[in-house]
Amino acid sequence: MSINTFGHLFRVTTWGESHGPGLGATVDGCPPGVAIDEGAIQHWLDRRRPGQNRYTTQRREADAVRILSGVFEGRTTGTPVQLMIDNTDQRSKDYGDIRDKFRPGHADITYWQKYGHRDYRGGGRSSARETAARVAAGGLARAALNMLAPEIAIQGYLVQIGPHGIDRGRFDAEEIERNPFWCPDAQAAAQWGGYLDGLRKSGNSAGAAIEVVARGVPAGLGAPVYGKLDTDLAAAMMSINAVKGVEIGEGMAAAALTGEDNADEIFMGNDGQPVYSSNHAGGILGGISTGQEIVVRFAVKPTSSILRPRRTITRSGEAAEIVTRGRHDPCVGIRAVPVGEAMMACVILDHLLLHRAQMGGGVGHTPGRIG
Amino acid sequence: MSINTFGHLFRVTTWGESHGPGLGATVDGCPPGVAIDEGAIQHWLDRRRPGQNRYTTQRREADAVRILSGVFEGRTTGTPVQLMIDNTDQRSKDYGDIRDKFRPGHADITYWQKYGHRDYRGGGRSSARETAARVAAGGLARAALNMLAPEIAIQGYLVQIGPHGIDRGRFDAEEIERNPFWCPDAQAAAQWGGYLDGLRKSGNSAGAAIEVVARGVPAGLGAPVYGKLDTDLAAAMMSINAVKGVEIGEGMAAAALTGEDNADEIFMGNDGQPVYSSNHAGGILGGISTGQEIVVRFAVKPTSSILRPRRTITRSGEAAEIVTRGRHDPCVGIRAVPVGEAMMACVILDHLLLHRAQMGGGVGHTPGRIG
Amino acid sequence: MSINTFGHLFRVTTWGESHGPGLGATVDGCPPGVAIDEGAIQHWLDRRRPGQNRYTTQRREADAVRILSGVFEGRTTGTPVQLMIDNTDQRSKDYGDIRDKFRPGHADITYWQKYGHRDYRGGGRSSARETAARVAAGGLARAALNMLAPEIAIQGYLVQIGPHGIDRGRFDAEEIERNPFWCPDAQAAAQWGGYLDGLRKSGNSAGAAIEVVARGVPAGLGAPVYGKLDTDLAAAMMSINAVKGVEIGEGMAAAALTGEDNADEIFMGNDGQPVYSSNHAGGILGGISTGQEIVVRFAVKPTSSILRPRRTITRSGEAAEIVTRGRHDPCVGIRAVPVGEAMMACVILDHLLLHRAQMGGGVGHTPGRIG
Amino acid sequence: MSINTFGHLFRVTTWGESHGPGLGATVDGCPPGVAIDEGAIQHWLDRRRPGQNRYTTQRREADAVRILSGVFEGRTTGTPVQLMIDNTDQRSKDYGDIRDKFRPGHADITYWQKYGHRDYRGGGRSSARETAARVAAGGLARAALNMLAPEIAIQGYLVQIGPHGIDRGRFDAEEIERNPFWCPDAQAAAQWGGYLDGLRKSGNSAGAAIEVVARGVPAGLGAPVYGKLDTDLAAAMMSINAVKGVEIGEGMAAAALTGEDNADEIFMGNDGQPVYSSNHAGGILGGISTGQEIVVRFAVKPTSSILRPRRTITRSGEAAEIVTRGRHDPCVGIRAVPVGEAMMACVILDHLLLHRAQMGGGVGHTPGRIG
What we know:
4 copies of one chain form a homotetramer.
Chain A: E1 5-6, E2 11-16, E3 22-28, H1 38-48, E4 65-67, E5 71-72, E6 75-76, E7 81-86, H2 108-115, H3 131-148, E8 153-161, E9 164-165, H4 186-201, E10 208-215, H5 229-238, E11 243-248, H6 259-262, E12 266-268, E13 274-276, E14 284-285, E15 288-289, E16 294-300, E17 310-313, E18 319-322, H7 332-359
Antiparallel strand pairs in A: 1-2, 2-3, 3-7, 4-7, 5-6, 8-9, 8-10, 10-16, 11-16, 12-13, 14-15, 17-18
C-alpha cells in the first residue's frame, strides 16, 4: 500500500514526481500561531538546492516554494499547510533511455514489478527530488520549534565520504558552513574535494555518512514501546532515498563495547539537572530523551546513476548494458544533510506535541523532579 | 504519548510489565483460517526463554502463552488474537534497591522524568521482558506466513559479540542451532564462550550484532515513500530494547563504497526471474523488495545491569554508586535473535497484506512482468 | 481488515468473544497519575451488568474486571492498561442450534460470508458482550477526565422505547437512576414497563433511543475536518452493536428547520463567557465544542434474538425457520446507556489530549479570548 | 489536533481555504492502473458546482481540477494523487463584516476560541467549499471502483427539504437527474421549488435530508468492531459541513420497531446468493455488508448565512446584530448530494481494499460459501 505520510501528530504527506508539474508536502497538525512565510522555508530549501557547486547535480531547479493553505496574515492557522514546489527544469528527453532498461541500484525494476506501470521520467516518485518536499516540511517544523522550544538547535554535517572519515579531534562546528561538504573538519573537506573530483572524472560516485545532532531537547520526549524517539528517528532517516543504515549514539559500535564502558554515568549538574559522564546513548534511554544531545547518524549509498557501464536487463528480459547519463550528484550524501536535519526537526516537533498531549503543561514539562 | 502498537494492517499492541500479573500482545488484523495453537507459539517463545544456559539470565520464567481470543477450533477467526503470558518468577524484593537510584544505561531516569510515576520493579514496562510478547506475536505472524507464503523462511543469528565478529568464510547455517549463541561460525562461537565467561566472572557484559535474513520474499513488497519495507524494518528493529543501530544490506559500510562497486547488476535467471550479481541492497530497492534475500542487521548495546559499581544519582538528587545485582544476561544480544526474527515476520506479513490490498491477487502478485 | 481500535491518542482496542475465556480492552495513551483501581471500573460495569431486572438478559455474568498492566500503586503509569473480564456463565450448549442457521438481524451470515470461519457460540465477536470492554475502558476514561477536567459530567438516559418517547416537559434528571430504564420521565418509565412486559411475554422485542449528554466540556475541543468532535462521536456511537442512527443536537430534525429557527444566537454571559439562546447545534459548531452541553442521540434496533419464528437459511443453503432461545434482552437499548456514556467519555478524553497536543496549556486552554 | 485525513488505505487528506490560492485533496493508497484524467473528475465536480440554478449560491467558481501527481499516461501509478482546484472568484471584500462578528451557526466563534487566529474570509477552512476537494477525491474513488468492481453504482438524492418529504410511492429514479433538487419525486420537487423561492425572498433558508445508496456492493465488506462499514459511513457523512444526523437503513426509526418487524428474513435467491425479505438493516449486519443495497441518510441543517438579522457578539464581547450578505445557498443540502456520493465512493473503495488485504482474492472474494 502506498504510504506517503509520516508523523503521529505533525503529519507530513509528500506527493509528486520528479518530472510532473510539481511536488509538495501536505502538512497537517501544525500548531496555530507559528510565524512563517515562503522566505523562511526557502532558506532551508536553498541549502538543499542542486547546482550550487561542482559536487552536486547540475540540474538547475529554482525549487521555489509556495504556501497554498494554512497560513493567514503570516501565521499558521492550525489547519493543513500545503507547500508546493513547481518543477521547472525537467528535460524529459534526457531520461528517455531509462524507459526500458532498469538501472542497477535504482527502484526502476521494483516499481515496475510492483505496479506494472511507472513514471520512468527521472525516477518519478522514487527520485531524490522528493526530499525537497521533506525539507520544506522541515522548514515549517523548525519554525514551530522556534516558537515552542527556541532552545532547540539542529545541525547536520558529513562525517565520511567514501572511505574517508573525519578526525573527531579536528571537529570545528564553525567549519561546517565554510566548505561545500558541510564538513566539520577542514582537512577532511580538502581530501574529499580531491577524492570526489577523481570519481566524477571517472564517471563514478561515492557514499557518505551524515550525522545530525539536536541540542537543547528537553528530557522526557518519546515513549514506550513502539513510539520511542529512536524508533521514529530510525524510520525517518531510513525513509530517505539511498539510506542503508541508521545509528543512535554509539550505533553499530555499541556491539563492541562492554557494559562498564558503555554506561553513561549520572551526576547532578550545577543547574539541578542531571548530567552524564558520556553520551554513548545518543541522548535516548528507553526510547525517551535524556536532555543530552540527540545524535543520529546514517549512511547513504553511492549514487547509482553513474557513467560506468553496468549490466542490466530490459523490460522484455533481454540482457543490456546501461550508462546513466544526465545530471547526477557524484555523492548524494552531501545534499542529504539538509534532508536529515529536516527529518530530525519533524520528529522532534512531533514528539513535543505527543508529550504535551499526554503530560500537559508547557514544552519540556516533566512531572518527575529530581532533587 | 504512549504508542505501544506497530504494524499497518497486522497490528501488534504489546502490554504488561516485568513484575505485574502478566504481559501480552493484542494482535489485530490477522487473516482468518490460520492454523494456530498455543504449542505453535510456545515453540518460538521457548527459543527466547531465559535460563537455558549460563550465558542468559537465570530468571526462570515458564513463559507459557495462552490464546485468549480470536482462535476457534484451531484456526484464527480474523478477529483480535490476545496472547497472554503470566509472570511467574518475579522476586520483587531483588529489585528493591533500584527504587531510588537510577541505573546508568537504563530507562529508570527517563521514565521518572517523563511520567513522575513508574513501576520500578525490574524495569517495569522498559524491561526486555516485553520482547516475549513480540515473540508470541511473531509466532502468529509466522503461522500466517506459512499459510500465505510458505516459501518464506526467516532466520536470525549473531554475527558479533563484543569486539569479536564471525568470519563469513566459515559461515555454516547448520551450525546456528548447535551452539548457545545462534552463531553460524563454530570457531567464533567457541571464542565467544570464553569471552563471555570472562566478562561474567568480572561482573561485566558485552554488546552484540544480530543479522536476520528473510528468504523467499517475493518481489514487490513495500512502497514509497514512508511505508518503505526498509523503513518499517528499521523501526521494528530499533524499537527492540537496547538496539542502537540498524542496517539494511551493506548498511553503514555503504558509505565507503563507490557506485560502481555498489551496483547490484541485473541478469535474467533461468526461471525467468531477475537475478543479481550481488546483494549490497539487502533485497530492497526504493523501499520495495527485489526478490533477493532481505538482510537486516542490528546492534545491541551491552547489558546495562552489571556488577561493576557505577556512579549515579538518587531520585532526591544525591550522588550514589550502584551495583545491579539480580539475574541478568551477560549479553542480551543472544536472546535478541528470536526477537529480531519475530519482528521480521511481523513486518513481512504486514507488507504482504498491504501489497494485496493495493494490488489484489495472491501473495506475490505483481502486475509488472519482465520478459 | 479487522480494526478493533478506536481513538486517536487515547486508543482502546477491544478483544474477546462471548464464549471464549474472556474479553478485554487494551488501553494505550492514558496519561500517568490517574487514580484508578478495579473497584472504580467495576462501578461502571455493574451498571451494564445483565440480570439485574426482568428487562435485561438473565445471563448472569459477574463481569469482574481485572487490571493486568499499566497501574502501579493505585495510579496509571502512562503505559498500556489491560482491562480483562473473564467469561464465567457461558452455557455453550444453549447456542448449539445457531451453528448452522443464520439468525436474521444478526451478523451470523455476514461473518460467515466474509471469513468462512466463525465462532458461532453466542455471536462470538459480534456479541453485545463486547460492549463490556468498552464500559471498562470508559471507566478509565472517566477517571482520567476526573483528574484533568473534573467539571465534566456525562450522563445517558433513554428517551424512547418502541414507539413511546418521553415527554421533555416531564424531564427530571433525578428520576434517571430510580427506574430500570434510566428514564428521565417517570410516567414514560411506567408505560415502558407495561409495553416491554407485553413484548417479552409474546417473545418479541423493542428498539430504543438513547441520549447522552456531556456537561462542562470546555469550548475548543475538536478540529477540522475529519477529526471533528461530532465525526468521532458519530463513529463511536455507530460502532456500538445494533445502533442504526446517530444525531448531534437537533439531529435528523434539523432538516425541517429554517435557518432563522436553527440559529443559536450568541450573547455574553455574566461570567464573560459566550452563552447561547438555544442549543440546536448540540454543543458543536464546525466540529469544535462551543462550551454548551454536548448532546448525542442514537437509536438501537430491537433485539434480533426473539422467540417468534423467523424464516432463514442454513449454511448449506436450505430454507429453515429459527426461534432464538436463550437469555436475551427484550430491549438491548437499556443496557446501551452505560455503553453510550463510556463512548462519550473516551471521545471527550481523546479530544482533550488532542487539543492540548496542538494548543498546549491546561485543559480547556484556548488562545482566542472574547472580550 | 488538526486531522484532515480520512480512510484507512484509500486515504484522502483535504487542504485549503475558501479564499486562499486554492484547495485540494492529497489522495494516497489508490491502486495503480486506474484510468483517470481531469475530465473524469471534472464530471463529478460540475455536479456540485455552484451557480447552476437559483437554488444554489451565485458564487461562480470554475472549480477546474488539475491532477498534479500520481497519474502517468492516463493511468494512476499507485503513488499519491494530488488534485488541486484554484480559487478564482473570491471577492474577499464581501466578507469583511464577518471579521469581528461571529455568525450564529457558523464555526467562526469556535475556530476563534480554539486557535486564537483564523482565516475569517468566507469561513476559511470551515467553508463548505472544502467539499469540492472531497468530490474530486470521490471522482478518483469512482474510477477505481469502476476498474475493480464495475457492478457497484452509487446514487444520492434528496428525500426532504424543510418539512416536506418525498412520497416513497412516487419514487422514480429517472426523475433524479431531471430537476434541480436531485429529487426522485417530481411532485415533491415542484413543491420544494415554491418553498425555497419563498424562503429565499424572505432571506431565510432550509434544511434537507439526503439519501445515498450503493448498489452492487458484494457481501463481506467491513469488519468488527471499530472498522465497521457503518461506523466509517457514519463518520464520513457526519464529517460533511452542516450534517447533524446519520442513519443506516431504518435509522432512528429502528427505535420504534419490534424485533419481529425489524428482522430481514433470509431466503436463497435464484442465483445461489442469499436474498432478504426487506432491508431494514440498510445492507449492513454486524458492520459487514450483506450484498443488499447500502442505504445511508443524513440531515443537513439550514444554511446559517441568512439575511434575517440574528443577535450575536463581537470578538471584543459586545452585543451585536448580524445579517450575512453574500452569495449563499438557500439550502446547502442540495449541493450535499454529490458530496455524500463522493464520501460513499471513498468508503466503499477503502473497504474493498481492506477486505482484499485480509481475505485476498479478487474483489468480493469471500471464503464462506452458502449452499
